[in-house]
Amino acid sequence: MLVYWIFGILVLAIMATVVVAAVAHPRKSRTAERRRRYALDAENDERIPLAPEREPATRAEVPDQGTPIRAPSPQDAVGKRLIDMVRASEPRVAEVPPAPAPAVAGKLVQTPDGEAIVTAPPFALRSHIFTRRIGRYYNGLSRRLPAWVVACPRMRLETLVTPTPLDGRDPDDWAQWRRRVRLRAIDIVIVDRRRWKPVLAIMLEPAPGAKFARAGSANGTSTALAIGGGQDRMIDEVLAHVGLPLVRGSGDLAQDWAMIEPYINESILRTVSEDEALAANDAAASRPDPDAAVNLLRMDADKGWMLE
Q1: Cα–Cα nearest to 197, from 244, 132, 147, 262
Q2: How far apart are CA 174 and CA 29, in angstroms?
């Protein structure tokens, strides 16, 4: 029985050896082929020797190929000494450290949302709100106004109008109009201070050739072909909708007064509407009350009828 087991193991070992040899033979053939690719002479099988390993050179050890290397001369040493002597004789200036960034102060203030810490406001006071040209225009206009009419400078458009309810309007469109109104201001607004009612709005165009002219104020074909002459017409649209007259002045009061004067006269002698005129005519044409004269008389016991 043992002999059969030994015989079986030998048969299996021989079969495994044959399989391994069959598999390894192609691999050895491929390895030999690759070695022959790198041989100088395929007959002698002499391979190219590898280069010997060497330490990688640092940047300082690699000389500049474009600059010729020469030994330092005595003149170079003398020049370096002179430079060092000059530098030593110069007065040393103490290095001033950079100034630290200014600290932004804060304080505790009361807001509609409660107490909050706010920093210092990032603003400075303007030296003037008008240019000299508009200031002269404003002073000349103020001298021509009656005592109860005042000219208000640089009034925000939002001060003159009040927003209406949505009433089914698109909320985005409503909010966009609010932003348009907040961003705009009017040069001069004439107000009747007896009721503080706005009478007239005046926008002055920049002087010809001004460096910072409003967009679209320049003449030319491109401006003429632009929509609305290339000017911002949002103020015109808003004031026309609310019913406040707007005059675009040239900056010359003598030339613009003919457009402004009718609105000033309106505040002096108010124009009577057609309905008010008809009502006044009807009141004047009505028949007097016959008892009116009798009501003016009073009977006195001693003096008879007497006027009240």
Answers
A1: 244
A2: 86
- Tokens at 85, concatenated: 């002597």
Please, what is the Cα angle at 94 between 90 and 97, to 5 degrees?
145
Give CA 75 to chain center in angstroms. Answer: 63
H or E element, residue 110: strand 106-111
Q: The tokens of 45 are what?
A: 């099988």
Q: Any idea what DSSP says for residue 273? A: P
The pair of three-digit structure tokens given for residue 290, joined into one six-digit string: 């016959």
Widest Cα–Cα separation across the chain: 181
Instruction: Decide: 244 and 201 in contact? Cβ < 8 Å.
Output: yes
Neighbouring CB atoms inside 10 A of 70's CB total: 7
Residues 205-264 have pLDDT tens digits of 887 766 544 544 444 444 444 455 557 889 999 999 999 999 999 999 999 999 999 999
229 secondary structure, DSSP code: G
**DSSP code per residue over 24-67:** HHHHHHHHHHHHHHTEEETTTTEEPPPPPP-PPPPTTTS--TTS
Q: Closest Cα to residue 193, out of 234, 152, 133, 251?
A: 152
> pLDDT, tens digit, for every residue of 163-185?
999 888 899 999 999 999 999 99
Distance, CA of 5 to CA of 282 (rounded, Å) = 145
